[in-house]
């Protein structure tokens, strides 16, 4: 069953989902948290610089796709990964495929994945007046991308469905125009490590140390669903997922070290009365 038809629709779903998740994460009115995030980004130079750097890294990922096209084609390492794994993803799909499950997982893979990042920034800005947790999120995401991009350039691995004819790309059932509308955000050979794994696990690890139990539980469940979906959809290899787990662990550890080196000393204005 198709649920996505345009990028505008995905943007709208992301905005609405982010607002719902912020409300869930704080257990209150999400709009005042959104306003606080906007206010602090426009009045605090450090927060604005961090946020701008984060956006810059996300755009760098898109530039990587253009740079890759300009380079001489590097060797394709997909066959090495498949030789190591065999038919793991094919067997996974055969075991779990169900038509009703596909749109649910597609929604998490495309919408909830990015909404959790947005919501995390807002929630931590609200609940942590020191700014440490917000800073750690920004650093962790930047580290994820900075480490992953060289792998995508020099150690390309194609998505499973594009290499193995026995594996189905079930994303097309939920988003028929995925290859024409969404593919520009993620190259076909940008597999190792899996950023969907690393970013979602990064958010879960950060949430576990945030002191917000309800958000920690949701972020952990979200990471598990995302990891399930990368195999179900026929996108990532088991090796990609393992690489994503290692990257997430490294990114979170380093992000907290960097955040502690430059802890925000000024108190973030509170909206609570």
TrEMBL record:
Transmembrane intervals: 12-35, 47-63, 104-124, 136-155, 192-208, 215-235, 241-259
**Residue ranges of every copy of the Inositolphosphotransferase Aur1/Ipt1 domain listed in the record:** 90-254
Keywords of this protein's UniProt record, alphabetized? Membrane, Transmembrane, Transmembrane helix
Top-level taxon of the source organism: Bacteria
* A Pfam cross-reference name: PAP2_3
* GO CC field: membrane
Name it.
Inositol phosphorylceramide synthase
**What organism does the UniProt record list as the source?**
Paenibacillus herberti
Organism placement in taxonomy = Bacteria, Bacillati, Bacillota, Bacilli, Bacillales
């Amino acid at each position: 069953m198709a649920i996505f038809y345009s990028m505008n629709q995905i943007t709208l779903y992301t905005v609405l989902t982010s607002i719902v998740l912020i409300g869930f994460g704080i257990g209150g009115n999400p709009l005042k948290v959104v306003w606080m995030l906007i206010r602090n980004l426009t009045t605090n130079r450090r927060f604005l610089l961090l946020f701008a750097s984060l956006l810059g890294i996300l755009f760098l990922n898109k530039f990587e796709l253009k740079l890759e096209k300009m380079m001489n084609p590097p060797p394709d390492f997909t066959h090495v990964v498949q030789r190591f794994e065999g038919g793991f993803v094919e067997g996974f799909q055969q075991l779990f495929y169900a038509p009703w499950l596909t749109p649910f997982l597609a929604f998490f893979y495309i919408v909830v994945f990015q909404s959790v990042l947005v919501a995390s920034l807002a929630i931590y800005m609200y609940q942590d007046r020191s700014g440490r947790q917000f800073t750690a999120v920004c650093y962790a995401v930047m580290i994820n991308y900075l480490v992953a991009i060289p792998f995508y350039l020099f150690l390309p691995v194609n998505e499973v469905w594009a290499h193995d004819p026995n594996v189905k790309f079930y994303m097309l059932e939920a988003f028929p125009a995925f290859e024409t509308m969404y593919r520009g955000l993620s190259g076909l050979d940008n597999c190792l490590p899996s950023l969907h794994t690393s970013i979602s696990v990064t958010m879960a690890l950060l949430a576990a140390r945030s002191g917000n139990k309800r958000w920690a539980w949701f972020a952990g469940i979200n990471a598990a669903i995302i990891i399930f979906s990368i195999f179900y959809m026929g996108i990532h290899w088991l090796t990609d997922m393992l690489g994503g787990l290692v990257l997430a662990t490294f990114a979170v550890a380093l992000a907290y070290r960097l955040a502690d080196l430059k802890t925000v000393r000024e108190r973030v204005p509170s909206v609570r009365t």
